[in-house]
Amino acid sequence: LLQDTTFDLCVSGLPPTSTNDECITAITLPVNSGLDCVNITNTYILNATASSQTNPCTIGTDDDVWYKFTATNTSHLIQFKNIIGSSINLDFSIYFGDCNSLNSLGCFLTHSNMYHNLTIGQEYFLRIHTADTTIGQYVEFDICISSPSINVSTASLNAIDYVNELIDYNPCITISNATKSAGETAGFNGINTFTNTNPNFSFQSGVVMSTGNATSTQGPNLTINAEGNQAWGGDSELEQIILDGTGQTMVSRNASKLEFDFTSQFPLMTFDFLFASDEYGTFQCNFADAFAFILT
Questions:
Q1: Rounded CA separation 53/128 (Å)
Q2: pLDDT for 9-27, tens place per residue?
Q3: Which one of 41, 82, 102, 176 is most buried, counting C-beta atoms within 10 A?
């Protein structure tokens, strides 16, 4: 059976050899003010060679290309998207300093990485290469550098420090007997402080409490029940309160809690909070994520 078919055919050559093959020719990348990739750089690797600077990555370092950006936040998400060509595996390392005297911040082997503890206004270099040793590869990809809505500290503080953050270090409130529990025995840290530079977010600063790592609340979160997965125990006091009030037995898990005594010189107290969960749409019929404020 013969059929007539029409189609378009395009034959094109490869682009020029990568011009950003060395640190001194690094291409400047835009930084997005939020998590959305509004400004993206389309770029490629072609006939690149290994640079002389020490590379913390160890595989496929024979074809690196360089980029640079200026941090506008203490945390930035670096993503590679739409990768096509002779390899789809890209590794990269981050540096700061002068091209003749760079300081490495580590090697990253995935295409989406949130990097913390950056210095606002500091220039950083990205050194990107394919993750294999084939010579002369051509790989095209997009780079997006974005910023979280909130910046969660990675410092580990004492319970009293978190409480002081909650009360905004008010000298008219006396705090004592502060304790915390947030998955430490399971390798998690579910409580930490945060700051915010996004005018669309409700709070400028405060404390974030999570059933996973507190730093993961910065996003992006593209999966349901992304972290925690019943990794540590619950809170027996909360379970007893539910039982006494409703007659229902509850088994709680992954409880992050902050407990303290306080004496205030004010007759009125307010407590503002924002509650969110990544389990809605799948698990809400069998599980109930909860936030409890218990005043005794």
A1: 13
A2: 777 667 788 899 999 999 9
A3: 102
CB atoms within 10 A of CB 83: 15
Cβ neighbours of residue 85 closer than 8 Å, sequence gap 6 or more: 44, 45, 137, 138, 139, 140, 141
d(CA 40, CA 55): 26
Residue 194: what residue type?
A: F
Tokens at residue 200, please?
Answer: 């669309």
Please count the residues of the chain.
296
CA distance 180 to 13: 61
Answer for the pair 263, 174: CB distance below 8 angstroms, yes or no: yes
Token pair listed for 223: 């999966």
Neighbouring-strand partners of residue 263: 174
pLDDT tens column, 130-167 = 988 777 789 999 999 998 878 888 888 899 999 998 88
Q: Give the number of C-alpha atoms closer than 13 A to the C-alpha of residue 274, restricted to the C-beta side.
A: 9
User: pTM here?
Assistant: 0.69
Kind of pairing, strands 90-98 and 101-108? Answer: antiparallel
For residue 234, what are the CA distances in angstroms to 177, 206, 246, 290? 21, 23, 18, 12
